[in-house]
């Protein structure tokens, strides 16, 4: 990876937020959102790739990386609330604050001492699509696709689900979303610790079963206490699935540099599709029916993780 390429991609997000503040032109706003998406993908690709390059297949390293993502996801709603609670135009200052953080990020990336800071040569890396024939990689694709379906559905529809189903008020529902990310943070830190104690396949199985059990509890609950228990359980057990699954194919990702880009693009499709599907179902049968669709993705995640454990059963690297 070349430093100039990293800096160029991180400029996108800075430009995007400045565009959002300075213009109301629909075309320029669409461009800003497009640049935000490009930058989001580039950062995810780079960060996961460089951590895997340094600590190939180490679940603790990727769980720590994704813990920092959880911190940002937990703090950002409070930043927005701080600026907008007494000022309808406060979103401008919130956007400028994020733009400033993007500038700091840009400077930090430019100063990082990257060990692999030169173009990839064919002598050192495979540049073909051979990873698409690898059953471990394909299983991971399936797991992460279904996982992202469920995660983005929960993140996108949880607050609406609580409000429209009458379980809690809008403000309390928003606080539940923050609670979810706080639990995800602790869950990833604990997974980082446990990954040095037990195999990745067992850790994935434990998380997948817990994820399914507490998601069912969350969907069936109509009073405050079991709902909170469900949220805590879902956040805790879903937390380590993505980084641990990514670590399980770390050697493949290092061998085929394009594999990580393919994987993140493929899982991103799931993140786009499921919220839209829930919205369509919710329009027809209500938000409870819409959220019930997510259980299909969670069940598929568990089934593929069970299969993953079977095919890895006799592999010493786990």
Topology:
Blueprint (H helix, E strand, L loop, with lengths): L2 H20 L3 H29 L4 H26 L5 H22 L23 H30 L5 H25 L5 H21 L3 H15 L2 H8 L1 H6 L1 H29 L1 H6 L1 H18 L7
Describe what you observe in this structure.
- The protein has 318 residues and is mainly α.
- It has a single domain (3-119, 129-311), classed as MFS general substrate transporter like domains (Growth Hormone, Chain: A, Up-down Bundle), CATH 1.20.1250.
- It has helices at residues 3-22, 26-54, 59-84, 90-111, 135-164, 170-194, 200-220, 224-238, 241-248, 250-255, 257-285, 287-292, 294-311.
- The longest helix has 30 residues, at 135-164.
- It is globular and about 55 Å long.
For this structure, the CATH topology is: Growth Hormone, Chain: A
CATH superfamily: MFS general substrate transporter like domains
**Second CATH tier, the architecture:** Up-down Bundle
Question: What share of the residues lie within helices?
Answer: over 70%
Instruction: Extract low-pLDDT stretches.
Output: 1-8
The Cα radius of gyration reads 20 Å
How much strand? under 5%
> Average pLDDT across residues?
83
| Major pleated sheet | none
The structural class is mainly alpha
Q: So how many helices?
A: 13
